[in-house]
Hints:
Blueprint (H helix, E strand, L loop, with lengths): L11 H12 L5 H9 L1 H6 L6 E6 L3 H12 L4 E7 L2 H11 L3 E5 L7 H10 L4 E6 L3 H10 L3 E4 L4 H20 L1
Parallel strand pairs: 1-2, 1-3, 3-4, 4-5
Helix pairs in contact: 5-6
Amino acid sequence: MPNTSPANWSSRSGFEAARKAVRLGQVSQMERRYTFSDQSFIRRKGLRSKLRILVIHDDPLAREGLQRLINTQPDLDVVGLVASGWNALQRAYDLQPDLAVLDVSSPELGVEAIVLLRRACPSLKILALITGEEEHGRQLLAAGASGYLSRPIAEPIFLQALRDADRRARLKGMD
């Protein structure tokens, strides 16, 4: 018997659980329709509690370290790890995460990756990690990033930036 918990709706069996939840009257037909297309709607309605994050970094050690750090938080969940920009486009499209953490210091990842990610997933929020000056951060914001952090970054600041990027986007969407 599938778990009808809305927190489980992101998987294939989760879609079946969503259908069952509608039959049982736990969720209206209109809300179920939105859950398939608008992941932020699910969180606004309180149907899913975790922020789904895609980590895009060319260094495997950094990817795994970010995953471990993020997954220690009860309200954050890493749904995918990607090394290159082209793979990031496909994974973002397939997984439909709420937020992408993108290291733009690698040669293949940069402003172009942000533009392409925003085209592939318009509702995706992007938090860029940079090693450089403020001007580069402004370029990333102009390209569509929700925010940027300049390294080195303390863990509490990084985790708060993840939450803030999502919170600001949700507040904009509620206007």
